[in-house]
Amino acid sequence: MAAKQPGLEPYKTQLGLGFLDAPQKPILPPPPCLEILPSEVSSSVKYTVEPVDLGGLTLLKGRVSTREVFNLSNCDLIPGKYEGGLKLWEGSLDLVKTLQKELGCGHGLPGIFAGFEGAAVIHFQDFNAEVLRCLTIPNVNANILKKSQSLATDAREWNIDAEFRFFAGDWSEVHQILPCTHTNVKDQNCSPVPDQSVGYDIILMAETVYSISALPHLYELIKKCLNRPNGVLYMAAKKHYFGVGGGSRRFLSVVEEDGVMAGSLIAEVADGSSNVREVWKFHLK
């Protein structure tokens, strides 16, 4: 493995927050939070793969039809029902490219990349269980199979023994089933207590801050899940999501107002394919 950034410890666990995971304005009660087992991969939906070249690194991305999975026409978002998890958003690719430089080293590509680079435990989260069954789990399996077949000729030692787990649910409730949350650790008075052995060392999230109404739930979930005091959050997002009001700068204002975390801009992408995209790194003060 290439050298890590000075001062950044090797990471053990991460939480991969899915693409556009939380509803903007739910019109229905959110689905129940649950863990999706790898064996629950859907066999009724057509799943195809295609390679994605990320500057010398090739990962596989899956493709499924929203009509087959949700009986919906081709769309990116229906609040409270489908939160865009079947589409590969630009921020996911931005995040992988940035991690290649920063760490030296949904579709779930950032989480898959982290597993191949040494993370021992990777937890994926999406609003829709169907996204996990029909796309994320098959995508993880396809990339693991591809890399395991190339070990004999690949000079890098890919970690294919990482533990991958998958969790579905809304950001306001999913902490109840995630294994690495501070709220699940109680003292003798049944009150939550800080525990440095609890929490995710790294949280990766791409295109998750588009909805103003969802930002408070997302931010509170991050604080419940991040390891204290050394946990790190990487966020890839558009600077502004026109029409819905969210964006990386709106999330930054939430962080600054709370005063618990600090952030730094580590990458900016202005390639003309969309409005300006950014990758931020956050840590607890």
UniProtKB/TrEMBL annotation:
It comes from the Eukaryota. Its EC number is 2.1.1.85. GO terms for cellular component: cytoplasm; nucleus. Transmembrane segments: none annotated. Keywords: Cytoplasm, Methyltransferase, Nucleus, S-adenosyl-L-methionine, Transferase. GO terms for biological process: methylation. GO terms for molecular function: protein-L-histidine N-tele-methyltransferase activity. The keyword Nucleus applies. The keyword S-adenosyl-L-methionine applies. It is found in: Cytoplasm; Nucleus. It is an enzyme of class 2 (transferase). Belongs to the methyltransferase superfamily. METTL18 family. This is protein-histidine N-methyltransferase. It comes from Actinidia rufa.
